[in-house]
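ok so I'm stuck.
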Amino acid sequence: MRRLAARGERLTVGALPWVAPVYRAMPQVTEVIEFPFAHGGLQFKARRAIAKQLSGQFDTAYVLPNSLKSALLPFLASIPRRVGYLGESRVGLLTHRLKNPKNKPPMVAFYSALSGETLQEPDRPQLHIADSDVEKCLRGLGLWRGAYVVFAPGAEFGPAKRWPAAHFAALAAQLITQLDVLVVLLGSGKEAALCDEIAVPVNASTPGRCLNLAGKTALPQALSLIAGSRSVVSNDSGLMHVAAALGVPQVAVFGSSSPLHTPPLNDQAVVLWLKNDAAYQPPLDCAPCFERDCPLGHTRCLNDINAAQVLGALTTAVRPVAVPQ
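replied:
not stuck anymore, here's the structure
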């Protein structure tokens, strides 16, 4: 988005409602169109109806997903220039086609290539949340800036990307007692039970100090909560990238995936990945496997990262607590 906007392109993003707030927080995006598509299925009639509304409005379409249905709408809207990667038999739907790389390049380079420019160095993502929106959100929850740490313990892809809930709980207990902060848990409704595995034992010993908001906040609220936090601890997930784009101090725990592929592009980020730890023995020859579940059944890549390691990483980059007067 930053590359396209810098060369004068006016950007409209078509997105599903659940992710649309992220694009609205991108300063380079002029307009966001929410697509009413359900997960799965071609939904041809719905795509054709929206394509008819968009016809004649755009010069170029950048199709980021590799699916056929993603390329169908720009084709039906007769957008003259349609750029994307080859995939799912959509040769005729795109006018400018890039070959998918055989290895797994950094995702920033992967998408930046659609601009037609060679990426010299990674661009730092940037999201902007208005201070008034942050303050309104925090007031509604009885929180204040810098007085809490956000945990994002979920990862949609699968368990092989999730640091164990017991480890998160141990870290929360240490943060609460040592730094006198609250811990706020964020995630989707599907992750509420996972977050309960963290919140329940922590609140049993320190009542009310661990707030489980999984499934209780819309994405704009989650963005504001991250923007106002002291720091963020997460797996390799969407909220990890949100924290990076907001420039929040963060620790990202990697397991089956690779920070060489999807790193948090944030100067205040610390990545913990045992694959890169020369002192860790025996070496993790199996990593990164990019599997949903550990094929070997031990998930050492995550289980062997303890709470003390994450706490140590957090102390290298934290925000001062801003206690209201």
